[in-house]
Amino acid sequence: MKKMLVLAFVLVFVLSGAVMAQDGVLKDDGDFEWDPGVEGGPIWQDGELYANYDVDTGDGVVFVNHIDADNPGVYTNLEEFDRSGEYLDVNDTNNENRQEVAITLPAEAYIPCYLEMRLTGNQGTTSAISYGPGASATGSTLPQGQSGYHMVFDNEIGGFLDANWVSLGHGSNAEIDPGDDVFIGACDIFAVEVISNDNYKYEVISKALEGADVANNGKKLPMYMRTDLGNGWLANDFIFNAERTFTRTRNAGVKLEALHNFKVPFSMNTVHGHYSGEVVFRAVTI
Q1: Both 209 and 247 in a single domain?
Q2: Cβ count within 10 A of residue 192
Q3: Domains contained in the chain, number
Q4: Which of 19, 35, 117, 199 has a CA that sits 20 to 30 A from residue 4's CA?
């Protein structure tokens, strides 16, 4: 019985020594390393320290850290964990794998179109403004057919002009003979201003005036127009002898300013009487 107790005591001591043999050594950072079964690592055995002297730091401390990359499962106590794809959660702002969240919110803006025209002449001014899509500001300077603000060719008002738009005189029954180079001028020079926040096209649209009396019924009276777009009168007249359109374009935000002067011929082939028609000043976005 005593022998059994002695043997048991010896076994307990040996096992305690085995546990102590797994205690390891003190590392440089002050932690105590326990690394059981690592080949080349320090373990207590028979009271002597065996170590891998190739990694001896010379400061009396030996630390061996060995991971068997060829047999990653050797030191895995939880077999279901796969550490082969382990990614350390380090916030590195210098690489493209940095952590982020982003939400894209589409943004749109719709700017309404503004288009304005102002016509001045013959002691009157008419303005037309179009605000936004589908808005069409069109009209006449003669509301409800009233007279007063319109273009008139009359020798008492516009007088007589030559081919170069130089006055030959005016007045009631002015003594000016008809001729191929004689004309009757309009009652005024008409000024047009146009502005828009979109690209636009400016147009003057008309055709020959038509006889309205018995004597000149069916007769045509062409209109001559000269234009100044800010750099002086253009060299060539624009003749409305049929339905025609004078056109200029401008970019968004660029104001158009134009002066227009009109005249009609006064020759022996110009049959006496009343002629009528219309001139359309128009701007449209493009």
Answers
A1: yes
A2: 19
A3: 2
A4: 19
Model confidence at 140, pLDDT cuts 50, 70, 90, reads confident
Do residues 172 and 281 both lie within one domain? Answer: yes
Query: Are residues 147 and 164 in contact, defined by beta-carbon separation less than 8 angstroms?
Result: no
Please check whether residues 129 and 80 belong to one and the same domain. Answer: no
Q: 3-state DSSP call for residue 11?
A: helix
Residue 220 CB neighbours (<10 A): 15
Choose the weakest-confidence range: 20-34, 64-78, 197-211, 233-247.
20-34
* pLDDT > 90? residue 250: yes
Q: Higher-confidence residue: 172 or 202?
A: 202
Q: How far is residue 200's CA from residue 252's CA, in Å, rounded to a whole number?
A: 7
**Statement to judge: residues 9 and 143 lie in one domain:** no
Residue 82 has which token pair?
Answer: 């796969």
Report the alpha-carbon distance of residue 244 to residue 222 in Å, rounded: 11
Domain limits for position 71: 1-92
pLDDT in tens, 47-91: 444 444 455 555 666 666 666 666 655 666 666 666 666 666 767
The answer to whether position 50 is within a domain reads yes
Q: For residue 22, is pLDDT > 80?
A: no
Is-contact 259 193, C-beta < 8 A? no
Q: What spatial distance separates the first Cα and last Cα of the chain, rounded to whole Å?
A: 117
Tokens of 174: 């002015």
How many angstroms separate the Cα of 132 from the Cα of each of 17, 140, 194?
A: 95, 21, 16
